């Protein structure tokens, strides 16, 4: 195939096809055709469908490059015929200079007109013949100057018009070329996305064909993409013995916009939720799963209720991501209603609660008398919070990076030991094309405070690599005492399990240590997912129960969100309508609060901002970080069914 310039095209070898005019199309899964539309046609068969698509994509890109080259050469020839080639910056500078000359001529013309108008007005008001004779001479002189300025203005306009006419067609052609290139790129991306999706669907169908009937083989919708949210956790627990206190700050930074579907209280950043109480009882037995029941999440033995073990299946709604992206260009993403197809039927607050799924690790940590061993278990708990992200791409956006800024704290009441850490970076791959998958990477440092001051743990989340022989999603780390000596080794993966080992010696050197360890202890093991969880958002048992309806809850409870309930029930069209309504309602409330704050500032009176119902706001010393400390009044209000303080958010 040829992408030579015009001078070489007359001397191409027999059988060649110039790419700039070639027709490229697909015949079947492995065969494609390249033709000049006339006498020359090539039928090419690749070994696989993937190889065929690679060839077609490469040839389309080469064709686009050949077209650009040919059009550029035509413009060069036109420039040579007109006496030279003008570069675009030079044309722009020339037009700018001429515009400045037009402005100057206009100013001079206006000045001379004012000078001419003044004696003309005086002549109209004066009837003295001698005075009129003197004014006539002045008017003639000033009229001459006005005429000269007018001629200069006319000449400047003519020069500007000539320049614009000489180069205007090139600008129009360049603009049209950019429009065509954009349309061509859009078509290529859409075609590539569709073909990639079909490949994955075909692969999935082939993989599962022996286990299911052909009539039951519903193709998975791989065109669903989701918005990225930060990780974190924290939820008020019911009555129980205080083993630890866990603080979660929900601030985060993203390189893409947050979903605008959260309520006012959950959209605040740099805030801390303080929760005190024993972790929730999470059912684990296979018998409970098969029976469709589980324990009460409150852990109370006095009152138990049957709990669900799954949510309705996720509908197979098609989604054209490219059309949504086109509508987002140049707009504020926080004001664009993203469809529920990008999410899952859980609120951000409920999603944060999932960090507690393996809170029993903290129970084990609370029993440790050695702060370094305790910190090793805390490290395993922080790793466990990522366990569902390998299969849960909902509520994330989305290749996209999520960089949490907030700090999480845990305090053990018996010892007073406190530990703090920040989350690592979450990356979501294949936003445009292919199946979404999530990776965690970066360094996490957990520092001790109080009696545990000086000890710390350093964890390294190793990014995914196609070239490593090591297992993927690996996390490695060490726990060091106040002197910097390594006391515990941490090793595992963030989607499966974590083992910890006490260091018994170092056979290496200080600069190149080789640690000897005792037997490994399994600090955390990920529970297997529920049966058929791939049909309902890959939810764990806890996730499936988070949005389970319950009578007598506060009217602001996330489980009462109408759009979220409709989405869970599979009514996505109605859910999208409700979502837009809620977002507009939230924006109206925010505008009202901003207007009230502006009026208060204009009138010189203090403005009382909104305060959460169930939390007290405090600040750290020498810090502007706001802490929200749970007041403990929710359960009393629930017992009395007194919700008068709750705002109308739904």
TrEMBL record:
One GO-annotated biological process of the protein: lipid transport
Segments of skewed composition (Acidic residues): 72-81, 216-225
Gene3D superfamilies found in the cross-reference section: 2.40.160.120, 3.30.70.3490, Pleckstrin-homology domain (PH domain)/Phosphotyrosine-binding domain (PTB) (2.30.29.30)
GO CC terms in record: cytosol; perinuclear endoplasmic reticulum; plasma membrane
Keywords: Coiled coil, Lipid transport, Lipid-binding, Phosphoprotein, Transport
Record's protein name: PH domain-containing protein
Family statement: Belongs to the OSBP family.
Annotated Pfam families: Oxysterol_BP (PF01237)
Residue stretches of biased makeup (Polar residues): 292-303
Record carries keyword Oxidoreductase: no
Species in which this protein is naturally found: Rhamnusium bicolor
Residues covered by the PH domain: 1-64
GO molecular function: sterol binding
Annotated spans, Disordered: 67-87, 202-312, 549-571
Basic and acidic residues compositional bias, start-end: 558-571
Segments forming a coiled coil: 175-202, 575-605
């Amino acid at each position: 195939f040829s992408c030579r310039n015009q001078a070489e095209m007359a001397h191409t070898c027999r059988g060649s096809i110039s790419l700039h005019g070639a027709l490229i199309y697909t015949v079947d899964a492995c065969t494609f055709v390249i033709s000049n539309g006339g006498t020359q046609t090539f039928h090419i068969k690749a070994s696989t469908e993937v190889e065929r698509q690679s060839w077609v994509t490469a040839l389309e890109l080469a064709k686009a490059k050949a077209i650009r080259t040919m059009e550029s050469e035509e413009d060069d020839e036109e420039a040579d015929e007109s006496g030279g080639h003008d570069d675009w910056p030079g044309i722009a500078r020339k037009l700018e200079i001429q515009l400045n000359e037009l402005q100057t001529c206009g100013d001079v013309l206006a000045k001379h007109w004012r000078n001419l108008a003044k004696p003309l007005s005086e002549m109209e008001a004066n009837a003295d013949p001698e005075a009129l004779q003197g004014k006539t001479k002045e008017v003639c002189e000033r009229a001459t100057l006005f005429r000269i300025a007018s001629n200069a203005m006319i000449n400047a306009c003519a020069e500007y018009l000539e320049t614009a006419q000489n180069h205007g067609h090139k600008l129009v052609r360049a603009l049209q070329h950019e429009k065509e290139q954009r349309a061509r790129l859009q078509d290529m991306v859409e075609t590539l996305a569709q073909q990639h999706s079909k490949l994955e669907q075909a692969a999935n169908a082939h993989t599962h064909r022996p286990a299911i009937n052909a009539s039951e083989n519903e193709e998975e919708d791989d065109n669903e993409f989701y918005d990225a949210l930060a990780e974190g956790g924290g939820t008020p627990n019911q009555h129980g013995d205080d083993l630890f206190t866990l603080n979660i700050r929900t601030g985060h930074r993203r390189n893409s916009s947050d979903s605008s579907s959260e309520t006012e209280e959950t959209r605040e950043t740099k805030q801390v939720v303080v929760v005190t109480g024993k972790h929730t009882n999470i059912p684990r037995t296979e018998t409970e799963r098969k029976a469709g029941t589980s324990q009460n999440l409150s852990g109370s033995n006095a009152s138990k209720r049957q709990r669900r073990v799954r949510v309705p299946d996720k509908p197979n709604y098609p989604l054209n991501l490219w059309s949504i992206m086109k509508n987002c260009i140049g707009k504020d993403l926080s004001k664009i209603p993203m469809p529920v197809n990008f999410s899952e039927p859980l609120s951000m607050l409920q999603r944060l609660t999932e960090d507690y799924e393996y809170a029993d690790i903290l129970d084990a940590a609370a029993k440790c008398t050695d702060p370094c061993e305790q910190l090793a278990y805390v490290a395993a708990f922080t790793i466990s919070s990522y366990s569902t992200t390998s299969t849960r791409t909902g509520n994330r956006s989305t290749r996209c990076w999520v960089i949490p800024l907030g700090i999480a704290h845990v305090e053990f009441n018996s010892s007073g030991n406190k530990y703090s850490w920040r989350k690592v970076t979450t990356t979501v791959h294949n936003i445009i094309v292919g199946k979404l998958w999530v990776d965690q990477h970066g360094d996490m440092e957990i520092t001790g405070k109080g009696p545990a001051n000086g000890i710390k743990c350093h964890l390294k989340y190793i990014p995914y690599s196609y070239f490593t022989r090591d297992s993927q999603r690996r996390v490695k780390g060490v726990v060091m005492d106040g002197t910097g000596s390594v006391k515990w080794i941490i090793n595992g993966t963030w989607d499966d399990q974590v083992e910890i080992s006490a260091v018994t010696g170092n056979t290496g050197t200080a600069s190149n240590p080789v640690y000897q360890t005792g037997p490994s202890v399994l600090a955390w093991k990920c529970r297997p997912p529920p049966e058929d969880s791939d049909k309902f958002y890959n939810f764990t048992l806890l996730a499936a129960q988070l949005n389970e309806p319950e009578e007598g809850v506060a009217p602001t409870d996330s489980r009462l969100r109408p759009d979220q309930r409709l989405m869970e029930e599979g009514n996505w069209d109605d859910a999208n309508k409700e979502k837009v309504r809620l977002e507009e309602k939230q924006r109206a409330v925010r505008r009202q609060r901003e207007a009230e704050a502006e009026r208060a500032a204009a009138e010189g009176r203090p403005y009382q901002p909104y305060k959460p119902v169930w939390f007290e706001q405090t600040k750290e010393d020498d810090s502007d970080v706001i802490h929200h400390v749970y007041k403990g009044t929710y359960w009393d209000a629930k017992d009395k069914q007194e919700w008068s303080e709750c705002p109308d958010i739904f």
